[in-house]
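A brief tutorial aside. Many learners find it easier to grasp structure tokens once they have seen a single protein encoded end to end. The record that follows does exactly this for Protein FAR1-RELATED SEQUENCE. Read the sequence first, then the structure, and try to relate runs of similar tokens to stretches of the chain.
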Amino acid sequence: MFMSGNEEEFEKVWHEMVAKLGLNENRWVTEIYGKRKRWAEAYLRGNFFGGMRTTQRAILRIRQNEAKAEFESNNSSPMLSTKLSILENHAATVYTKESFLKFREEMKNAELFFVVGLVSDHSMRAYTLSKFRHPNLNWEVQFCPDIVTLKCSCMMFESIGIPCCHMVVVMKVEHLEEIPQSCIMKRWTMLAKVYTRSVPVNETDNDMDRFIRYGSLSSMCNKLSYFASDTSSSFIEAKNEIQNLKARMEELYNYNLKEKKIAADGATGTNQVRDPNIVKTKGNPGKVAMNVQKGRRCSRCKRVGHTIRKCPKATIPQNAQPGYMGMLGEHLSNDRSDMYIDCGELNNVRSGIKKHF
């Protein structure tokens, strides 16, 4: 991947490696080889990538630069370089360093513009501006003194969020010592990442609130990482505190998740009447609970399923005549499936046999 050779050398080394490892028929190796112009340095050499090799590195660099810029904005003060020191100083306290530099550039460009016309009424003043050595170009800036708002025809503030040089000219004419709040976009100020929204106790959290809180915490952790990575001692201390805080927040998260689940179950089952929970009684559960069922046992043959009256091993006289069993069969039940003999019926059969003989 990072070999210093050219394309021909890469092809030679690649085929030797694949043949040596026996991966000629491997599907993944074939797909990677087909994309070699996207990852092999032999094919990428000569293209400018700014030192980046992966998107992860690009994201880490952006976060590092953001943390560094935020640190410089909060812990340093830019030097004032214009004659409008009061207005410039106010911009330095409001904007971040990068945003302030852009606004100061507009302040310097304001020296090329001057007022060539004014239309005033009871609620608004409209200034017409022209540029040095460009008399045919005109811009109109509307100023409302009651609510202190500025609006320029160039619409730079609406597009970028930084007051234009035409607005700065009107600020000088109106002797404004501070930039009007209507001309300050919070996105470019030092308070852009400060989460100041107050959430009432009875307000239901939604995905947007969670997203805002997540972004605010991510910004704070970015700044914490920048400061804590300065020395080994601060790194170890921050690491231990983060681990402790992570354990606490994880426990709180699981608790809140359990509470939400209980509340959801209660809400869905409010109007449902269900069977009461079965409670196990104390003591011996008894035969019924133990599912112990004993069948009736015959006292003659000791088998289960019949009594002595219907025992199939009923006593038959030893001196019975040959026709005894025939007569016995005639007096038995017609049901062939009945395997038991009634003792009363057997006695009647015996009496009939005696009378017969």
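Self-check: The two ends are 118 Å apart (CA to CA). If you spotted this yourself, you are ready for the next section.
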